[in-house]
Amino acid sequence: MVVILNKNPDPKRVADLTAWLESLHLEIHPTVGKMQTILGLVGDTSKVDIELIRALDIVQDVKRISQPYKEANRAFHPDNTVIKVGDATFGDGSCPLIAGPCSVESREQLLEVAQRVKAAGATLLRGGAFKPRSSPYSFQGLHADGIKLLLEAKKETGLPIVTELMDLSQLDLFADVDVIQIGARNMQNFELLRQVGHVDKPVLLKRGLANTLQELLMSAEYILAGGNHRVILCERGIRTFETATRNTLDLSAIPMLQEMTHLPVIVDPSHASGIARLVKPMAMAAAACGADGLMIEVHNDPAHAKCDGPQSLTPDAFDDVAAAVRQIHPLAYRA
Ligand code: PEP
Ligand code: MN
C-alpha cells in the first residue's frame, strides 16, 4: 500500500501517522521528493482501513498495490482449489451440473425431479427448504420438512444435496446436508459467513445482487479465514438498468474470478435470466467461458411452481440443456 501525502506536510503529523502505521505491524518506507512525500507500507495491509487513512488531512491519496483478500487470492495459492462432493468435482476443469427445483414443495415433486435430473447427468440435487422471498406473503419453503424430503431424495437417488441456509438458528437441521448454500441476499451477512467458516462442509456462496467481484471474494474470505477452505463461488446475475431479464448474467465474472482466485466458479443461468427459454443459451455461454459447474432450476410442473416457475426448466428441457453443455464444454475457454 502506498500513502501519498499532501505537499509540505507537518513533520509532527507525519511522525504520528508513521508511528500509528508501525503499531499495525507495518514497515514504513518514506520517499521524500521535492514535490511530494510518499510512504510505502510493507506487511499485511489486509487489516488496514484505507478510508481512515485517506480521511486524514495530510493525506492526498492511498493506493492498494496488493489485494485485501489473502486466503482467496490466486497470487498466494496458484493451484486451483478442487472440491469433491459425491461424484461431482468442482475446480478440476470439469463442469458438474447441480439441478432441482427452486423450492421443495412435496415428496412427489422432489422425487420426480431428482430422478429425472439424475438421469440427465446432474450430480447434485438442489432445492430450497428455507426461501428468501421478496414478499412475506409468498411461499417461504417447507423448512424442516423440506430438509427431510431432500434427505429422502438423497437416499433414493444417491445425489448429494445443496440447500440454502438463511439463518444460524437453522444450522442444526443441516447436519446431513452436503453443501450449504449462502444465497445472494445473505452474501454480506458477515456473521452467517463467519459461522459457516467453522462448519466442515462445502459452502456454495452466491454473488449478491449488486456486489462487485472483490466484495464476493471478501465474503469468501470470511469463510476461508474461519478454516473452511471448501468454498464454491456462484455468479447468478446482477442488477443492472435492464428490465427485460430478471438480472444480467455477468459472463466476464467467470474468467475474471478465475484469475483473481483459486476457488471454483459456477454459474446459475436460471436466476441470472429469470426466463426458462434463456437458460439454455446462458448455460452454453457459461460452459464456453470455462465455468466450473452450473446450477439450474428444474420443476416437473413449472406452470404451478410455488417459486420461480417462469425460469424453471421441465425435465425434458433440462435433458436438452445438459446435452448441449456436454457438447460445448470440451471447447471451453481456459486461461
Ligand atoms: C436460489 O438459488 O434458490 C436463490 C434464492 O438464489 P439467489 O440467492 O441467487 O437469488
Ligand atoms: Mn429460485
Task: Describe the secondary-structure layout.
Blueprint: E1 2-5, H1 11-23, E2 27-32, E3 37-42, H2 50-54, E4 59-63, E5 83-85, E6 88-90, E7 97-100, H3 107-119, E8 124-126, H4 144-157, E9 161-164, E10 179-182, H5 190-196, E11 203-206, H6 213-225, E12 231-235, H7 253-260, E13 265-267, H8 269-273, H9 276-288, E14 294-297, H10 315-328
Helix pairs in contact: 3-4, 3-10, 5-6, 9-10
The structure holds phosphoenolpyruvate and manganese (II) ion.
How would you describe the oligomerization state of the chains in this entry? single chain
Gross geometry: elongated
Strand percentage: 15-25%
Average pLDDT number: 96
Bound molecules: phosphoenolpyruvate, manganese (II) ion
Percent of residues in helical segments? Answer: 25-40%
Count of separate DSSP helical elements: 10
Roughly how many Å apart are the termini? Answer: 28 Å
Strand line-up of the largest beta sheet: 13-12-11-10-9-8-7-14
Class from secondary-structure proportions: alpha/beta
Order of helices and strands: EHEEHEEEEHEHEEHEHEHEHHEH
From the alpha-carbon coordinates, what is the Rg to the nearest angstrom? Answer: 23 Å
Largest pleated sheet:
8 strands, parallel
Low-pLDDT ranges:
none
Question: How many strand elements?
Answer: 14
Brief summary:
The chain has 335 residues and is α/β, with parallel strands linked by helices. Helices cover 31% and strands 17% of the residues. It has ten helices and 14 strands.
How would you portray this structure in words?
With 335 residues, this protein is α/β, with parallel strands linked by helices. Helix content is 31%, strand content 17%. It has ten helices and 14 strands. The strands form three sheets. The chain has an eight-stranded parallel sheet. It has a four-stranded antiparallel sheet with strand order 2-3-1-4. Helix 3 (107-119) packs parallel to helix 10 and helix 5 packs across helix 6. Bound molecules: phosphoenolpyruvate and manganese (II) ion. Residues 102, 128, 132, 183-185, 206, 236, 271 line the site of phosphoenolpyruvate.
